[in-house]
UniProtKB/TrEMBL annotation:
Cross-referenced InterPro entries: APOBEC/CMP_deaminase_Zn-bd (IPR016192), CMP_dCMP_dom (IPR002125), Cytidine_deaminase-like (IPR016193), tRNA_aden_deaminase (IPR028883)
Name listed for the protein in its UniProt record: tRNA-specific adenosine deaminase
Recorded family membership: Belongs to the cytidine and deoxycytidylate deaminase family. ADAT2 subfamily.
UniProt EC number: 3.5.4.33
Cofactor remark from the record: Binds 1 zinc ion per subunit.
Keyword Hydrolase among record annotations: yes
General function of this protein: Catalyzes the deamination of adenosine to inosine at the wobble position 34 of tRNA(Arg2).
Subunit structure as annotated in this protein's UniProt entry: Homodimer.
Residue numbers annotated as active site: E55
Keyword terms, alphabetized: Hydrolase, Metal-binding, tRNA processing, Zinc
Cofactor: Zn(2+)
Root EC class: hydrolase
Bilayer-spanning residue ranges: none
Taxonomic source organism: Hydrogenoanaerobacterium saccharovorans
Organism ancestry: Bacteria, Bacillati, Bacillota, Clostridia, Eubacteriales
């Protein structure tokens, strides 16, 4: 197993925790020099916070732990391609690398819908996609399939 796969498995476990809590199963972790600094998952529903994405939660935790808003030298692992808000936060936090599992054809901003890393920002992270992609996609598919089934059952009552 590669280092990327090892850390993506940590993000996947966070995504599964999000699903157990009724959140969209997206998980993230931030690593620097082989040490996991933070782990986050979606909390939009439970916190009633539109900013409660896995990446934002992981970034906030890592910044608190390091005592700095700058995350130079850090790698963010996330199960789903970052959205515009999260991609902006990644740029602002100066994260050096992003590794994501599943592409997001509806809102992904690291190659799918747009690529913020291709724009001339002062600091731009390198990104790698497709790490444990099938497992990351399966978590999302399972969650949304269950959600649709529950909604269909509620409509029939």
């Amino acid at each position: 197993m590669t280092a990327h796969e090892t850390y993506m498995r940590t993000a996947l476990e966070a995504a599964r925790e999000a699903a157990r809590l009724g959140e969209i199963p997206v998980g993230a972790c931030i690593v620097r020099d082989g040490e996991i600094l933070s782990v986050g998952y979606n909390t939009r529903e439970s916190e009633r916070d539109p900013l409660g994405h896995a990446e934002i939660n992981a970034i906030r935790q890592a910044c608190q732990r390091l005592g700095s808003w700058r995350l130079d030298g850090c790698v963010l692992y996330v199960t789903l391609e970052p959205c515009p808000m999260c991609a902006g936060a990644i740029l602002n936090a100066r994260i050096s690398r992003v590794v994501y599992g599943a592409a997001d054809p509806k809102a992904g901003c690291m190659g799918s819908v747009c690529d913020l890393t291709a724009m001339p920002f002062p600091t731009v992270p390198y990104y790698k996609s497709g790490v444990l992609e099938a497992e990351c996609r399966a978590e999302l598919d399972r969650f949304f399939r269950g959600l649709r089934q529950r909604e269909a059952a509620a409509d029939q009552m």
